[in-house]
Amino acid sequence: MPALRVELRASRALAAVILSLHAAGAIAALGAIGGGAGAGLAVVLMLAGAVATRDRALLVGERAVRALEFDPEGKLAAELSNGTRIAGSGGARRHLGPWWVVVPLAGRPWAVLVVQDMLAPEAYRRLRVWALWGRLPPVARAIGSG
Asked: I need a labelling partner for 115 at 20 to 30 A (CA). Which of 19, 29, 78, 124 fits?
């Protein structure tokens, strides 16, 4: 049984950020290029934003990460919406801030972005501890495994 399993939920805040950034890019493309080419690029940017929002923030895409599992040694597995389980170790370079944690999967070309509103406060705190130290403290193991 894993020491910690966190079920991710949709993040409206992340969805708003992704869509806002893509909209800003679309506006910039319209201003810089203009005409039909600028409009085409703007549409492509907005479609890319919609796809990214669906998969990364709203977690409804087939390959959206729905859960992360950490064992006591710091190994990590990701579970996708389609039921696929991706096992591996957490990459050595984890990044975190007050509202987000980036969890790279070793041997994979992508990482998982977890923002604060995707988890309950205690689960988010444990995820941040794991990101800082690469392992769970003994108390988190006991709490997470019960």
From this structure: 29
Using only C-alpha atoms, what is the Rg of the chain? 18
For residues 82 and 135, state if they share a domain. yes
pTM, to two decimals: 0.79
pLDDT averages per 10-residue partition of the chain, 146 residues: 79 96 96 93 97 93 87 79 79 80 78 92 87 68 45
Please compute, for residue 72, the number of CA atoms within 13 A of its CA located in the half-sphere on the CB side. 8
* Same structural domain, 50 and 74: no
In angstroms, the CA 131 to CA 1 distance is 20
Provide the domain count of the chain. Answer: 2
